[in-house]
């Protein structure tokens, strides 16, 4: 989903089980971040849908209730940079390196005014639109 791809095959749980899970742990909201704990390339998804979906949280880190002083897109790129640069020093494990939530909480992020973060996010959105247009033209 972080790469904008469909999940194939489509995964399914019952609506009753989904409701039970949401009552127990909550459900991701638009603007939350989801990332695999075993992923040194910084693959992070900013939730961009209100459609119900389930994720197995055993190996997925969920950043939610993000402080209003952070733009989720800015936070995504800040964390991505931090993870890609310092994964070996912030991830732990004996068999394979895995990013734990306590280590993620300790990650320092840039202290940038929200107005500049929003400008950055708008630039990213415009860049993504330009890439998409270029890909569509190349395919035509």
Structural account:
With 140 residues, the chain is mostly helical. It has a domain at 15-111: Adenine-n6-DNA-methyltransferase TaqI, Chain A, domain 2 (Alpha-Beta Complex), CATH 3.90.220.20. It has four helices and three strands. A three-stranded antiparallel beta sheet has the order 2-1-3, with helices on one face.
Break the fold down into its secondary structure elements and pairings:
Blueprint lengths: L14 H11 L7 E4 L8 E2 L13 E4 L8 H19 L10 H6 L7 H26 L1
Features:
140 residues, mainly alpha, Adenine-n6-DNA-methyltransferase TaqI, Chain A, domain 2, 3-stranded antiparallel beta sheet, 4 helices, 7% strand, globular
Note the gap between the termini.
25 Å
Helix content: 40-55%
CATH superfamily of the domain at 15-111: DNA methylase specificity domains
The secondary-structure class comes to mainly alpha
What's the CATH C level of the domain at 15-111?
A: Alpha Beta
**How many separate helices?**
4
């Amino acid at each position: 989903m972080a790469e904008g791809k469909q999940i194939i095959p489509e995964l399914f749980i019952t609506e009753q089980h989904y409701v039970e899970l949401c009552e127990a742990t909550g459900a991701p909201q638009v603007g939350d971040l989801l990332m695999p704990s075993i992923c040194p390339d910084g693959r992070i998804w900013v939730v961009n849908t209100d459609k119900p979906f389930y994720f197995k949280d055993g190996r997925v880190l969920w950043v939610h209730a993000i402080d209003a002083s952070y733009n989720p897109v800015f936070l995504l790129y800040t964390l991505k940079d931090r993870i890609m640069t310092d994964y070996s020093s912030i991830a732990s494990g004996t068999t394979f390196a895995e990013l734990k939530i306590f280590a993620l909480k300790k990650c320092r992020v840039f202290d940038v005014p929200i107005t500049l973060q929003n400008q950055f996010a708008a630039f990213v959105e415009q860049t993504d639109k330009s890439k998409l247009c270029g890909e569509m033209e190349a395919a035509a």
